[in-house]
């Protein structure tokens, strides 16, 4: 109803002007605002009002009845036309096919099923809560009890009876350290076996002495021979462990020294290995200092030698005349006085610094 008359729904134009009712304030055209009545809002003066306000003001109707005014007739007509149009397009059951009727019946049943159920009242909810509170509640089992019951049902040992596994940290030792630890462990086991065997022959010797028989001396000699063999074996193992430890330490120092030399030469230290250097055999009586000096000599021999600098010719770089000047701005090139002046003046290179040049072999015969 925007920009239209509230009474006849005609649209306001340049020739159809809009007027306002002095009582209700609604917009009307001049035809619908043709009534006059005393308006209390305007000081009980005669003003132009609409038909509804005229009836209220002249007949003295209550404000309650004024709020129940019906909409305009034009609006009612439009609503009636729209309802008739919708009814004409509504499908009838006798026009539907058999499949459509089955689908419509299913939809109807679904609508009946999806209807909300009756909500329980507050009294019913309180009664249910009271009944639940009155029920006896048993003790709640702990986590350990539940795990034990589950293990019993599954036929396995309960977690409480299983031994706790100790945490084993990762092994961060190097191969040399692992080899050294294995040798130490082996030496300790040999020492334990040796101590155990020492107790065995001693007891047998004591028994033979108590018996006083001739077999005592033979048993004693056998026990001493076995003990000497075990002692020699443990001594050799200990010496081997010490030599291996020293050899690993020497190789590590030689490798570290070779890597430092590679860094000084500008090479990649990760590519340096012990195979690049000749290491002495284990039978050679070479001390550590001698080995380090030998590795240094090998590294110096393997280092690339710089090429001999080419002999500088004492000639001008342009005309092959005897040079008299050296230009620092031209990478130290040699010039004679004439070529330097002509070349630098032509290219405006006056800021180049020069120094006098004397041939190193001046005075010698060519």
From TrEMBL:
<keyword id="KW-0446">Lipid-binding</keyword>
<comment type="subunit">
    <text>Interacts (via MIM1-B) with VPS4A; interaction takes place at the midbody ring following cytokinesis checkpoint activation.</text>
</comment>
<feature type="compositionally biased region" description="Low complexity">
    <location>
        <begin position="168"/>
        <end position="177"/>
    </location>
</feature>
<dbReference type="InterPro" id="IPR013083">
    <property type="entry name" value="Znf_RING/FYVE/PHD"/>
</dbReference>
<keyword id="KW-0175">Coiled coil</keyword>
<dbReference type="GO" id="GO:0008270">
    <property type="term" value="F:zinc ion binding"/>
</dbReference>
<dbReference type="InterPro" id="IPR011011">
    <property type="entry name" value="Znf_FYVE_PHD"/>
</dbReference>
<protein>
    <recommendedName>
        <fullName>Abscission/NoCut checkpoint regulator</fullName>
    </recommendedName>
</protein>
<keyword id="KW-0832">Ubl conjugation</keyword>
<keyword id="KW-0963">Cytoplasm</keyword>
<feature type="region of interest" description="Disordered">
    <location>
        <begin position="157"/>
        <end position="177"/>
    </location>
</feature>
<dbReference type="InterPro" id="IPR044553">
    <property type="entry name" value="Bbox1_ANCHR"/>
</dbReference>
<dbReference type="InterPro" id="IPR000306">
    <property type="entry name" value="Znf_FYVE"/>
</dbReference>
<keyword id="KW-0597">Phosphoprotein</keyword>
<dbReference type="GO" id="GO:0090543">
    <property type="term" value="C:Flemming body"/>
</dbReference>
<dbReference type="GO" id="GO:0044878">
    <property type="term" value="P:mitotic cytokinesis checkpoint signaling"/>
</dbReference>
<feature type="region of interest" description="Disordered">
    <location>
        <begin position="198"/>
        <end position="229"/>
    </location>
</feature>
<dbReference type="Pfam" id="PF01363">
    <property type="entry name" value="FYVE"/>
</dbReference>
<dbReference type="Pfam" id="PF22586">
    <property type="entry name" value="ANCHR-like_BBOX"/>
</dbReference>
<dbReference type="GO" id="GO:0032266">
    <property type="term" value="F:phosphatidylinositol-3-phosphate binding"/>
</dbReference>
<dbReference type="GO" id="GO:0032154">
    <property type="term" value="C:cleavage furrow"/>
</dbReference>
<keyword id="KW-0862">Zinc</keyword>
<dbReference type="InterPro" id="IPR017455">
    <property type="entry name" value="Znf_FYVE-rel"/>
</dbReference>
<keyword id="KW-0206">Cytoskeleton</keyword>
<dbReference type="GO" id="GO:0009838">
    <property type="term" value="P:abscission"/>
</dbReference>
<comment type="function">
    <text>Key regulator of abscission step in cytokinesis: part of the cytokinesis checkpoint, a process required to delay abscission to prevent both premature resolution of intercellular chromosome bridges and accumulation of DNA damage. Together with CHMP4C, required to retain abscission-competent VPS4 (VPS4A and/or VPS4B) at the midbody ring until abscission checkpoint signaling is terminated at late cytokinesis. Deactivation of AURKB results in dephosphorylation of CHMP4C followed by its dissociation from ZFYVE19/ANCHR and VPS4 and subsequent abscission.</text>
</comment>
<keyword id="KW-0132">Cell division</keyword>
<feature type="compositionally biased region" description="Polar residues">
    <location>
        <begin position="217"/>
        <end position="227"/>
    </location>
</feature>
<keyword id="KW-0131">Cell cycle</keyword>
<keyword id="KW-0479">Metal-binding</keyword>
<keyword id="KW-1017">Isopeptide bond</keyword>
<keyword id="KW-0863">Zinc-finger</keyword>
<dbReference type="GO" id="GO:0005813">
    <property type="term" value="C:centrosome"/>
</dbReference>
<dbReference type="GO" id="GO:0051301">
    <property type="term" value="P:cell division"/>
</dbReference>
<feature type="domain" description="FYVE-type">
    <location>
        <begin position="1"/>
        <end position="58"/>
    </location>
</feature>
